[in-house]
Every structure is written in structure tokens, then in C-alpha cells.
């Protein structure tokens, strides 16, 4: 809660006029408790889980009708009906209501402990960007090792096999998992803000962007216009799709966001071998088609 009664009091304390964004933040948050602001994450996650994968539903249905999107589908032989996708969403919402939502409600003391602030001044765009980079890097590294644990015999059979029910992932399957996996993966997500605590707005952005990234990674489509293709060392949908395609036997592509951990620890060899093999097959097929075309001209 902002400890100022008016915008004038806040300006006096800061020694300058509030920016437009700071004035808007003051108007919205001044009378609200920090706990109330933190619980906004419940609404944000509900909207993200519900709406962000929705365009992929229409793409999948359109692909089933016309086949035009087959060129972007990573596993084109797999088709999902509306009922298949709705069943996944229903199961995710059950997990949200029974685990994710209550976890958000009771985890506020951890936010107090690491001193996520909600007052003024607001962080600069540069500060927000720098902290988000740290959060993604920390989460990616720690998630890598948690994910490798999930692919141990015990971890997979007892917990992680549920997430791998989707060998060809869809957007709604990103948070589809055993409740214990949801809880354990919350640790890597929290570590970044614990190491470099920032503003509540930064924390909101971090939670939202991480879930949106997970949905994109599980989309099942490799669109050439995806902006994440411009991010260095970013894995993306094709990279993670291979992990699901191989399934329970997979000892490859464990990283959640970037590819450097898999490269450093040698857990991307199967993926790189398959990708190289597919490129060779495509080149040989293209060469064969060109030769056949030349023979017909003769």
C-alpha cells in the first residue's frame, strides 16, 4: 500500500512530479493492500490459461477443415478435435481451482519475505527488462535440473508422465501436469524474484510472460513470424515438441526456455541428430525432384 494520502504528498516525498504511469498506479493502488495486489496474479493466470491458447484452437480446427496450416504443424499427422482441446482446458481449470489459485492465496508471506514492493517510484523500463532477463535465466537453469529429475524412473512414473500424455502438445497442455509438478516447478519460477526482487508490476509481468512463453512452446506449431525466433538461444515450439514426441524415454531438450543448458550438458544430441537427418532427407528429396524434372524436359 502506498503510504501517501494524495498525489501531492507522493510528489513531495519523491521530490518531483509523478509520471503519467505513476499517477495511474497511485490512483489504482493507493487504497489497496499489497496482498490484494499480489492476488491479481490469480486473475491474470486465469485469463492467460483461458485466452492465450484460444487462437491455436481455431488454427487446429481450421487445419482439420482445410489443411492449410499443415505446413506449420510440427506433427501434422496428429489432429485434435474441439472436444479433445476442451477436455484439456477443463482439466487445467480443475488444477487451477484446486492447486494454483489456493497456492497464490497462501504464498503471500514469501513475497513479503523477499520484499517485492508495490509503492513509488515505479521501476524504469530498463530496470524491468534487466530483471526479467535475470528471472528467465535463473528459471531456465533451475527448471532444467528439476525437469531432468522428472525424467528419472521414479519422477516420471510417479509425477511427470501426466504432462507427457500429450505426445503432440497443444497450447492448453502447457500447465497440464500432476499437482506435485505444479508445486515443484513453482520453485524455479520464484527463485529469480527472490534473487533480484523488484516491483509488483515486474512480478506480474514475469508470471504472465513465463506462462505465455510456455503456451507458445507447447503450441505444436512452428510459425515463421513468431517474434521469439529473434531471441538468442531460444528453444521454441519445435525444440520442445521433440521432447514430447520422444516421450517418457526422452533424455533430450529439458530446458524450459533457452537451449544453452542442453548444449552444455549434452542433452540435445538426439534432437540435433534428428534435425540434421531430416535436413539431409529434404535436400536429397529436393535434388531428386529436380533431377526428375530435368529428365521429363529431356
Automatic annotation (TrEMBL):
Pfam families: FA_hydroxylase
The keyword Magnesium is assigned to this record: no
Keyword Membrane: yes
Transmembrane segments: 35-59
Highest taxon of source: Eukaryota
Subcellular location: Membrane
InterPro entries assigned to the protein according to its UniProt record, in alphabetical order: Fatty_acid_hydroxylase (IPR006694), Sterol_Desaturase_Related (IPR050307)
Domain Fatty acid hydroxylase stretches: 133-267
Record's keyword terms, sorted: Membrane, Transmembrane, Transmembrane helix
PANTHER family noted in UniProt: STEROL DESATURASE
Family as reported in the entry's similarity comment: Belongs to the sterol desaturase family.
Protein name, per record: Fatty acid hydroxylase domain-containing protein
Organism, scientific name: Brassica napus (Rape)
Lineage per the UniProt record: Eukaryota, Viridiplantae, Streptophyta, Embryophyta, Tracheophyta
Amino acid at each position: 500500500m502506498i503510504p501517501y494520502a494524495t498525489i501531492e504528498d507522493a510528489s513531495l516525498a519523491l521530490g518531483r512530479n509523478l509520471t503519467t504511469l505513476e499517477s495511474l498506479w497511485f490512483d489504482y493502488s493507493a487504497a489497496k493492500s499489497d496482498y490484494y495486489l499480489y492476488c491479481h496474479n490469480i486473475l491474470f493466470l486465469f485469463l492467460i490459461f483461458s485466452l492465450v491458447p484460444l487462437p491455436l484452437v481455431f488454427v487446429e480446427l481450421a487445419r482439420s477443415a482445410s489443411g492449410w496450416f499443415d505446413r506449420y504443424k510440427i506433427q501434422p499427422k496428429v489432429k485434435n478435435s474441439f472436444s479433445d482441446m476442451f477436455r484439456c482446458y477443463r482439466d487445467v481449470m480443475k488444477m487451477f481451482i484446486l492447486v494454483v489459485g489456493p497456492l497464490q492465496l497462501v504464498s503471500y508471506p514469501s513475497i513479503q519475505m523477499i520484499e517485492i514492493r508495490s509503492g513509488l517510484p515505479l521501476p524504469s523500463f530498463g530496470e524491468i527488462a534487466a530483471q526479467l532477463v535475470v528471472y528467465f535465466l535463473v528459471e531456465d537453469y533451475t527448471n532444467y535440473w528439476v525437469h531432468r529429475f522428472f525424467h528419472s524412473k521414479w519422477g516420471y512414473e510417479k509425477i511427470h508422465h501426466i504432462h507427457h500424455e500429450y505426445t503432440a502438445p497443444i497450447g492448453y497442455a502447457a500447465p497440464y501436469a500432476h499437482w506435485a509438478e505444479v508445486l515443484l516447478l513453482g520453485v524455479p519460477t520464484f527463485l529469480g524474484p527472490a534473487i533480484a526482487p523488484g516491483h509488483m508490476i515486474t512480478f506480474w509481468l514475469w508470471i504472465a510472460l513465463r506462462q505465455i512463453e510456455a503456451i507458445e512452446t507447447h503450441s505444436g506449431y512452428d510459425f515463421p513470424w513468431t517474434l521469439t525466433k529473434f531471441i538468442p538461444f531460444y528453444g521454441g515450439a519445435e525444440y520442445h515438441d521433440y521432447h514430447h514426441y520422444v516421450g517418457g524415454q526422452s533424455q533430450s531438450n529439458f530446458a524450459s526456455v533457452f537451449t544453452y543448458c542442453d548444449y552444455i550438458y549434452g542433452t540435445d544430441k538426439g534432437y540435433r541428430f534428428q534435425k540434421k537427418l531430416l535436413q539431409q532427407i529434404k535436400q536429397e528429396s529436393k535434388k531428386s525432384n529436380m533431377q526428375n524434372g530435368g529428365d521429363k524436359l529431356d
